[in-house]
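Why does residue order matter? Because the sequence determines the fold. Keep that principle in mind as you read this record.
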Amino acid sequence: MSRVGLLSLPSGLSGDMFLGALVGAGVPLDVLNHAVREVGGPDLGLRATSVSRGGLVGTRVEVCWRGEPLEERGGPSPDETLPDAPDLPAVAYAALVSRIESAAIDPDVRTSALGVFQRLAETEATLHGVRPEAVHFHELGSWDALADVVAGAAGVAALRLDALYHGPIAVGGGTVQAEHGRLPVPAPVTLRLLEGRACRFEPELGELTTPTGAALLVAFAKPAPPDLLLRPLSVGEGAGRAELRDRPNFARLVIGEIDTASRSARVAVVEAALDDATPEEGGHLIEVLFEAGARDATLTPLIMKKSRPGFLLRVIADPDRASEFASLILRLSPSLGARWRIEDRLELPRRIERVRLREGDVRVKIAALPDGSERIHAEYEDVARIALERSCALADVRREVERVWDHSRER
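Structure:
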């Protein structure tokens, strides 16, 4: 059993919506405030209130300076200083790193917060053609975004989840006013951060997902698998500032449990001894059995009576098809008899995904392990095809598939 979270984002995501969802799902506000004040000092804090959006009630978390709420903003600027005022015209990436590194917060929270800003710096650097060290944040580096990121890291750590997933992301559309004038929505940094994620574009709704919200999402959550089955335990509704005309402006966080342990199943084991079949006939029989729907089929060398070499054919099949496969073996092989038995076995939950390489897709079988982690295995036929095209070793292609898959799960 694993404890996981699922973010539902039909109204997008901002930093304050993320914090509201965390508090609504059970994270104490004091946990978030402790981390924020360690980074920003006693004047910086969070305030949580219950609000109504579209007739539903949720949690609104605001970042406050000396009790007055600040607004979330986003975008870069050339200033290199870190003023001691709530209105930050710009923040150097190095100054942000220094402030977070010197704060007396949990090491895991510190590492996570630094990772969020590192991802932002790398994204901004790509957009503006500079090195990450040269990036300066304007709205993204203001007090509210600093608090959102540090509090978000502390809140996720407090939930002690095995995994955090998310569904499709509403990003909005149109334009938004930023430091450098009007920008298209999603803002360039938001769109770049969400590469590879399922996004919903709605041109008339403005900015639904902010840069800070996107950065928190890609740092802490990964796309939900299509067959996710979740038993809800608690729900948090994080409210945004605005009232949307066609939906409640909430980001919903569902905390629940999923089965990742091995599950019990029953299978038929059908066996037959082949004492005068050639290797070619045995190989052909294996292919026919797979085509007929066998779960597995193997040939094991045997020494039979009168010291003659032979094979043991073993087929794993659905229990209700045992006699069908026994009859098929007798019809297609020289064996005079086939036996079967019904056995219990444990199975890991698994699914099939595709990894895109330049030569085409590679199918990968992904097994969910009892500790909540996942193990992948690339399909031999796809790996062999690419290895032949490249004239390289199978292991080289498998390693590349694993790297690409790992990278896609981190994004």
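The mean pLDDT is 86.
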